[in-house]
């Protein structure tokens, strides 16, 4: 089903790979983006983050393995290639409610 949590997360990664700023439309209006010691709350703050990231670094995520879903929680391990050639290894944990992302918490692996 299109609104199943794993399907929502798959659309998130599809839009990120396309560098599509409408990725923000997948988030609830009061969603939170948590990572790197900060919390961005609300769609406007999340939009600002993604627009800046897409414009400045052109992140291109590639899934490592399958998207893992249990109820409203979804996890994905990814590598993210940036426009400068840097490669980031991350784990993203999503909470998806009513077909939208409520929270996305991301963890970076330090090599």
Fraction in helix: 25-40%
The proportion of strand residues reads: over 45%
CATH architecture classification name: Roll
Sheet/helix structural class: alpha+beta
Sheet of most strands: 6 strands, mixed
What is the helix tally? 2
Number of strand segments: 6
Can you tell me the residue ranges where pLDDT is under 50 for at least 5 consecutive residues? none
What does this structure look like?
The chain contains 2 helices and 6 strands; from the N terminus they run H-E-E-H-E-E-E-E. With 111 residues, the chain is an alpha+beta fold. It has a 6-stranded mixed sheet. The longest helix has 15 residues, at 43-57. The mean pLDDT is 95. It is globular and about 35 Å long. The chain has a single domain (5-108), classed as Nuclear Transport Factor 2, Chain: A (Roll), CATH 3.10.450.50. Strand 1 and strand 2 (38-41) form a beta hairpin.
Summarize this structure briefly:
With 111 residues, the chain is α+β, with helices and mostly antiparallel strands. It has a single domain (5-108), classed as Nuclear Transport Factor 2, Chain: A (Roll). It is built from 2 helices and 6 strands; from the N terminus they run H-E-E-H-E-E-E-E.
List keywords for this structure.
111 residues, alpha+beta, 2 helices
């Amino acid at each position: 089903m299109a609104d199943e949590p794993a399907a929502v997360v798959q659309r998130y990664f599809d839009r990120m790979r396309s560098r599509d700023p409408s990725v923000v439309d997948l988030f609830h209006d009061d969603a939170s983006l948590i990572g790197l010691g900060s919390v961005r709350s609300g769609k406007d703050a999340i939009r600002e983050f993604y627009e800046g990231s897409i414009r400045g670094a052109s992140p291109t995520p590639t899934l490592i393995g399958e998207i893992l879903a249990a109820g409203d929680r979804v996890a994905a391990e990814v590598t993210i290639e940036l426009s400068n050639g840097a490669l980031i290894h991350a784990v993203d944990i999503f909470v998806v409610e009513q077909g939208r992302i409520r929270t996305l918490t991301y963890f970076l692996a330090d090599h």
